Amino acid sequence: MTDKLPKTFEQKLARIDAIVKELEGGTVELQRATELFKEGKLLARDCEALLKSAQEQIDEAMAEPPSGSDDAGAAAAPELEDELPF
Q1: Residue 83 and residue 64: Cα distance in Å, rounded?
Q2: I need a surface site. Which of 3, 20, 26, 39 has the fewest CB within 10 A?
Q3: Overall pTM surpassing 0.70 (yes/no)
Q4: Does residue 7 have a pLDDT over 50?
Q5: What are the tens digits of pLDDT across the range 15-73?
């Protein structure tokens, strides 16, 4: 594996891309190919966890009621519905 592990999602994804290209080159010895595969699998697992965390944060943000929301705001919502640009 590399000495300096990628830290960000983008760095991890770039490293996975580099690993795939190296493996697809067809000139990698078996031992090196095995090491690259293990590294790629670990990075893919990390990326999946980061994506899951980001999705959870987005879901939480979408689920939060708008600030100042109460029963009066909910009752007024149908009146504003026609005025919304979307």
Answers
A1: 22
A2: 3
A3: no
A4: yes
A5: 999 999 999 999 999 999 999 999 999 999 999 999 999 999 999 999 977 676 555 54
CA distance 12 to 9: 5
Other C-beta atoms closer than 10 Å to the C-beta of 19 total: 22
Over its C-alpha atoms, the chain yields an Rg (Å, rounded) of 23
Gap between the Cα atoms of 4 and 78, Å rounded: 55
Rounded to the nearest angstrom, the gap between the alpha carbon of residue 71 and the centroid of all alpha carbons in its chain is 36
**Nearest residue to 39 (alpha-carbon basis) of 73, 5, 62:** 5
How big is the chain, counted in residues?
A: 86
